């Protein structure tokens, strides 16, 4: 019973972060602010939801697979977000801006 | 616990609807790619919750392979956006 309550608290926290990230994607005015909101949605929402599922499951091989999925999400999603932001920044540069002198890359 | 997981699945589906709106409407191609990336993460969580409802733990492997394929698609499409250049939408 107490395990269900703790797992439910974690899963509802994850759902809160997913809702906030989706509101940011819908409402923010720029590409880079939307990238910021989507990164919150990927890391914190996935962490809290998977922690709730791990607590509900107990410690066995399925919990180790869930931790593997969590580590993989945490490595790959910031990498993909960084690549999208860099591609959009390079696409919208002016022609004479001088990429070699740019300090943002 | 099953009621909490069913409510979570319905709520995640509603937020996926919001991301699909941004993926259709989004002005630039990077907006669409961000929305598809977030939809991929939510789909992984949704597959794991379905596996806990049905008591079928081999869906965890399906979620892991889905994460791999989603990451490769994001990297390839962002390289394509970078190679477009210019002001093209």
Mean pLDDT of chain A: 85
SS elements, strand count of chain B:
0
Structural class of the helix and strand makeup of chain A? mainly alpha
The stretches of 5 or more residues of chain A where confidence is low (pLDDT under 50) are none
Show unreliable segments of chain B: none
Query: Which H/E pattern describes the elements of chain A?
Result: HHH
Mean pLDDT over all positions of chain B: 87
Question: What letter string, H or E per element, gives the SSE order of chain B?
Answer: HHH
GO molecular function, one term (chain A): sodium:proton antiporter activity
Keywords (chain A): Membrane, Transmembrane, Transmembrane helix
Family (chain A): Belongs to the CPA3 antiporters (TC 2.A.63) subunit G family.
InterPro entries (chain A): PhaG_MnhG_YufB
Brief synopsis:
Chain A: InterPro entries: PhaG_MnhG_YufB. The complex is a heterodimer of chains A (about 100) and B (about 90). With about 100 residues, chain A is mainly alpha-helical.
Report on this structure.
The complex is a heterodimer of chains A (about 100) and B (about 90). Chain A is an all-alpha fold and about 100 residues long. Helix content of chain A is about 80%, strand content about 0%. In chain A, helix 1 packs antiparallel against helix 2 and helix 2 runs antiparallel to helix 3. Chain A is elongated. Chain B has one domain. Helix content of chain B is about 85%, strand content about 0%. The longest helix of chain B has 26 residues. Chain B is flat and about 50 Å long. Chains A and B meet through helix 1, helix 2 and helix 3 of A and helix 1, helix 2 and helix 3 of B.
């Amino acid at each position: 019973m107490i395990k269900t309550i703790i797992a439910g608290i974690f899963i509802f926290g994850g759902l809160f972060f997913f809702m906030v990230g989706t509101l940011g994607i819908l409402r923010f005015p720029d590409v880079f602010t939307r990238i910021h909101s989507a990164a919150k949605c990927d890391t914190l929402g996935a962490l809290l939801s998977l922690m709730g599922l791990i607590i509900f499951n107990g410690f066995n091989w399925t919990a180790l697979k869930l931790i593997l999925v969590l580590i993989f999400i945490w490595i790959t999603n910031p990498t993909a977000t960084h690549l999208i932001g860099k591609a959009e920044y390079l696409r919208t540069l002016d022609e004479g801006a001088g990429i070699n002198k740019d300090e943002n890359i | 616990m099953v009621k909490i997981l069913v409510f979570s699945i319905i709520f995640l589906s509603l937020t996926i609807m919001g991301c699909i709106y941004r993926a259709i409407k989004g002005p630039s191609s990077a907006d669409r790619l961000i929305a598809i990336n977030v939809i991929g993460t939510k789909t992984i969580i949704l597959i794991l919750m379905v596996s806990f409802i049905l008591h079928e733990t081999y869906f965890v492997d399906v979620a892991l392979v889905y994460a791999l394929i989603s990451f490769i698609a994001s990297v390839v499409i962002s390289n394509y956006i970078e190679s477009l250049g210019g002001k093209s939408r």
